[in-house]
User: Fold these one by one.
Assistant:
Number 1:
Amino acid sequence: MDTLTFTCKIITPMFLHGADGQTPELRAPSIKGAMRFWWRAVNGHLGLDELRKQETAIFGGVGKGESDGRRSKLLIRLDLDQPLRTIRSSLVPHKRSRDGRRQMMMANAFAPEERFHVQLSRLPSCPMSLEEIQSLFQLMSALGGLGKRVRRGMGSIVLTHVGDKAVPSPTLDIIQRAISQLSQHYSKRGSQIIHTYQGKMEQYPWISEISVGTPKDRRITDVISQKTHDLKFKNRDDRRYIQSYEVSMGHAFKGRFASPVYTSILDEQFTPVITILNTIPDRNWRNIDMRIQQEFKKMVL
């Protein structure tokens, strides 16, 4: 088996919990799930049947047919130099009570600055090369993260080493090189990476565009949380605006629609990166307003 070892550093509090929903727990399935999500997100040009076929061949899965059940071709093992330090931190920093006092909504989280190692082994029958696997892991660590509120900057990680080799801080060019190993349908144009496929696309959250901002400070997650709140309620008396916000930015009201606007922290300079996914809400899709997504992007970047 071919093996890669990635060293990761936590940048923002990581609210990743075990079965009790309270005790911080870092597990290999969480990392594999994140890699699977981003693999799917760069392959929106594939038809659903082909997407499922390729995904199952790489990550494993179960299905109705006997041939659908597959073992994962990627094996993940976590290696900790010592138990990761935990802290109590605010999950939703902007949240306030009616009298204006901050409602901290504290929860246990893995602390920023903590490091862990991910050993990823590729079985000989895996359709992905080592270079593609490394690119996918780089993409996952740059654009995403692990745990709750990950789409609003929590649980962000930075890849610092592959084996003994130091990895440079990600830039838009580095992200483009990583994504080009996985798909030919993205290109860098100005300050963005955009999707360029002209054929029919499937209706699920594939990457539409990626934008990188300027370095901030360690309060960036507070800012992201507050900007989300400010944008949602800037027209609080306009019910149509609220409906447009919910189907454009995500909601957890009478059902749950995960935000198609994915905000993460790119590096130790607290540089925000925003990935806008194809927007497929659970209801009221006619109310989608891409201007709301772009306004949020400008507010954060």
Number 2:
Amino acid sequence: MHQCSFCKSELETTGYACSACGVRWDARFPLPRLARLDPGEAALLEDFLLAGGNVSELAQQRGVSRPTMRNRLQELIDRVAAMREGDNQRIETILGEIREGRTSPEQGARIIGALQHGSS
């Protein structure tokens, strides 16, 4: 789930905890791009990876033509590219907030790290 079931806004992670020592970080962390895929998109990506990136094999597994599968994959590629562009724009905004003193460098680095790498 990547959207609030009530208002449809994008969800964020609000904390991390170490199961070994109990240390906790409470903050707002954006979800990594792949975690923002809807369940159907995530399943398509997983199937594609498990098919070794073979579009023909994936099409056969899913019972569709190769051109249809290629179109579905292109839609997924376009979606991830748009998310990446949006994340890059958010990073530019955060860098501006750091320069203006509205966001601490530490907080900005955590958010940027989550956007770029899916971790903080």
Number 3:
Amino acid sequence: MKLAVVSDIHANAPALAAVLDAIAAEKVDRIVCLGDVAGYNTEPGRCVRLLREAGALCIAGNHDRAVIGAIGTAGFSDQAQRAVAWTQPRLEEATRAFLAALPMKLAVDGVLVAVHGALHPDVGCELVRLDDDGKRALSFDALAAHPSGARVCAFGHTHRAGVWERYDGAIRFLEGETIALRPDALYLINPGSVGEPRGDDQRASFLLFDSQAASVRFRRVAYDRSSVLARTREAGLMAPPRLAWLPAPLRSGLIGLVRRIGA
């Protein structure tokens, strides 16, 4: 089975459209979305429509849960809180219903388990960030015990692409654009972010998982990012510049000016 895995779209419809066009050329069996369709940018409804048209299997992310009021935003960044508050009164009923119906975890044909943040714990898994080996070990344990028998778990939330392997008790990070998977190991794979990549490469990111070929391949797709940033800035959702090195009065004045311009 060949799966295209996407995550962290964050209401960036042009990025998602570009990724779906690239996926169409790959002749995949299914598209799996790891959540956070909403948040940060301005087009969650269009993103939902694109995913539904593509027949994607989706799970809920923490931003999706927040915009429908299922969880609060304590622990969210100021920018993320601002986006949730902006999105909630503008959410179309069809989009709200779609997000509210999303499961927290999903097993796909016995070859992949999909989560947003982590495969552990049972409650609040969408909020856990797999950013160290201690947390990854707990999700590897959950994968080893998963009733689906899948040996691969796809997760998002960190916005950073990567593959982690557990073999013979050791966890290691695997580098490369295409990665071969051992039949006797467990894997945590992250496709990166479609709409809000973290790092130097700002192109939309996704991955292709081929269970028969036992491989993971990462893809990056360019899109008109400037138009998205313009709409996000116009809505007042851009993060203020990081100016911690400036004296407090000057920093406050500049941040206020940026917010007035973006309001």
Number 4:
Amino acid sequence: MAAEEAAVGLGSNLGDREAHLRAAVAGLAGLGDVVAVSSLYETAPLGGVPQAPYLNAVAVVATVLPARAFLDGLLELERAAGRERRERWGPRTLDCDLLLHGDAAIDEPGLRVPHPRLTERRFVLEPLVEVCPGARLPDGTLLHAFFPAVADQQVHVYAGPGWAGPV
């Protein structure tokens, strides 16, 4: 089976945010070969209850795992970081979102690829396009085409490439 590139959105706003994300990147190596990690971005939370700012990044993993098995691995990384799902869009130690899995379009219970809000969130689009400048939706639309719609969402580069260690 040929490897697919999976893009993973990472976020944390509880505890040592950077350490949680660094551990997540290291854990992704158990799901395939981590081929790229974006800069680290600090962003205000969107929706939900009042909470602390997030650190966000995107990692790209070359994997032979099918999307469902890959997602199961991401959920295990969240559990290992102490993630508790108490409320939708609430604070979290670690959030791992499967953004893209090759050029797959999947709509199953508990698994939607591309991520359904991918094009609505600058904190996802900016780091994803940073590491995959030609990233596209399955219909061929380039992701950078969605930047104007999220231009009012503030992001701040917290740490440049290399924050997660060698890839």
